[in-house]
Amino acid sequence: MASPSPFTRWATPKTSANHSQHPSSVGKPIPPLPPLPPMSHGTSHLVPSSPLTEHQFYGQLNFGTPRPTHQLFSYAAPKKLARNASHLDDENIAPTDGGSSPSTPSGSVRPKKRPKHNPPLSGLGDGSSRRKPSRTNAQKIELILGTIQTENWTLGYFLYQIFRAKDNEGGEIHRSSTHSQMVSVFLAGRSNETVADIIAEWMTHPDGRIPADSANSDLLYSTTVPYTDIRPVRAALTSFATQTVGKRVAVEAESAVKLNSGLHVSIGKKHPETKLRREDFGEGTIPRVQAVIKEKQPVTLYLFNRIAMRKPRKRDGIIIERKTRPAAMVVTHAIASLDFCRTDQANLLPLMRGILYLGSSAPVELINYNCRIGTMPAPDTVRRAMITLSEEEGHATQAHGKDPTTAGFLFVDNTQNYARARDLRIGRESVMNVGMSGLYMEAPDVDIEVFNLEDKRALIALNRRKDVTVDDFLGFVDQLDADVTGTLHILEVLARCIPSLKSGWGAR
C-alpha cells in the first residue's frame, strides 16, 4: 500500500481516527477538536473542505520556488527546545506515519508580522545614521539648568540640597542610593574633578569679583564676620580659610601648653613630675623646644616661617644659607613666648633666658621689662629657680665627693663684698661682707688608685726622697710638649702684634 502524500497528511484535519495518542494518554478518550472558524484572506473566506494537493499547498501558502522531489523531506535540524517545550509543538518536525500532525491546524495560515518602521531622528537626513548624537557640555548644562528652573529652584538651592545631610531638626535626610553614591565619590576625592578644582574655579571666576568700592570688599579675609553670613564667593572662601586656620592655631597652642607637652618646668612641689632639673638647661634646651613646637604646632610654625623668611635667594643655582638672625631660632623664641603668654606654666625657654640675664648681672629693670612683654618670668621666679638649681647641684656635688670610686678637686677661697650705703639715712651704713667660696671640679680621667692610702704609706717608708735631684724633676717634664707650646705662643704674639701678619692670622 502506497503511503499517502505528506502534504495530504499535513492538510488533513485532526480527528479521533487519525490522531495518534501520546503515551501518557493511553486508555483515555480523546475529545474531538472543535470545528475551525472560517479564515479571512483578502476579501474571500476560505473554509477547508478537502485535503490540499501539493500544487494547492504551494500556491496557497506561497512559500516561493518549490523544492525538487528528491529534497522534499530534507528538513532542517530541529531547534534547541526549552525544558518545558514539546517536540510535538515544533513546526519544523517531519511528519510521521502515525498520523500525528503539527500544532498548526490544517488550512490555517500564520499571519505575517508587520515590519516596524522607526522614524528617523530629527535633524538627520534619510541616509544618515540612526544613532542619536551625543550632547555637548553646553547642551547638558542647559538641560540640567532647565530642569532646575522647571522645579522653581535656584542653582544655590540645588547645590545646598545636594550636599545637605541633616534637616533643620537635626534628623538625617533620606537619600537615594544614586544620590548617596555620587556625593560620597565626589566628597571622598575619587572623582576626576575634585572639590579643590571647583574652589580654584570659584576663586578665579570673573563673576566672583568684588568691586573696590563695594561694601563687600572689606569682608575679604574677615575675622569678625562669620563666613556663613558672607554672600560673595571670594569673601566667603577667604574668611572661611582665615577663621578655620585661626581655630586650628588656637587648638595647637592649647595642646602645646599641656602639662605633658614638654614645655613645663615646675619650681615648687605642685607638679613633681615636671620639677626643674639641671639637665633642663643646656645645649639641648632649644632643640627640645623646637621638637615640641614642630610636633604640637605645625600650622603655627608654618605661618611664622612664612612671616620670618622670604623666598630663598640662589647664586649659581645654589641656595644661599642665611647666617644672620636665623629664622629657626627667631621663630622658636617667638612661639615659645606666645605659649608662655597663654599660660605661665609653659616656661622652659623663657626661664632659661631669665637665668641668663640674672647670671649676667643684668639690671633688674631690664628683667622687669622682659617680664612685661612675656619673654621671661618675673625676677623673683628666676631667683627661686636658681635656688632650686643650686640646691640640686649641691646634693649632686656632695654625692660625688662621698663616692669612693670618683675623684675631684676642691678649690676654696675667701670672698669680700663691700656694700656702700649710697643714700644717707638713719640706721644705714656701709658694710663689708666677708665669706668663703668654693669650686668643686670632677676629675673623670684620674685613676682612683692614686688616692690609695696604703700605697702612699709604702712609698713613704721607702724614703726615696733622699736620692732625688733636680735632673730627676726635669726628667718628669715633657720637653717636646713644652717646645711646641712655646713655639705656638711666640707665633701667636707675632701674628697679633705685627699688622702685616694680623689679617692673615684672623682669616686663618
TrEMBL record:
Residue ranges, annotated region (Disordered): 1-51, 89-135
Polar residues composition bias: residue spans: 13-24, 41-51
Biased amino acid composition, Low complexity: 95-108
Bias-annotated ranges (Pro residues): 29-38
Organism: Mycena metata
Superkingdom as given in the UniProt entry: Eukaryota
Protein name: Uncharacterized protein
